[in-house]
């Protein structure tokens, strides 16, 4: 499916891997649940 020219994709480099972020904060937090993205709707 072709991309919609009016929709600008986000830059993946703007995000750090969530596991790295959570691991860096392990002394501050207790992980009780892990969420994962199922779908992304743009429009």
How would you sum up this structure, described in words?
With 43 residues, the chain is an all-alpha fold. 16% of the residues lie in helices and 0% in strands. The protein contains 1 helix and no strands. It has one helix at residues 18-24. The chain is elongated. The two termini are 14 Å apart.
Short description:
The protein has 43 residues and is an all-alpha fold.
**Secondary structural class:** mainly alpha
First-to-last CA distance: 14 Å
Describe the global form: elongated
Q: What helical percentage do the residues reach?
A: 10-25%
Rg, rounded, reads 15 Å
Order of helices and strands: H
Helical segment tally?
1
For the sheet with most strands, the description reads: none
Average pLDDT confidence is: 81
Strand content: under 5%
Strand segment tally? 0
Low-confidence stretches: none
Task: List its salient traits.
single chain; 16% helix; 43 residues; mainly alpha; 0% strand
List the helices and strands and how they pair.
Elements (H helix, E strand, L loop, with lengths): L17 H7 L19
């Amino acid at each position: 499916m072709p991309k919609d020219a009016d929709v600008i994709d986000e830059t993946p480099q703007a995000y750090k891997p969530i596991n790295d972020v959570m691991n860096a904060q392990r002394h501050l937090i207790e992980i009780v649940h892990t969420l994962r993205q199922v779908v992304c709707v743009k429009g």
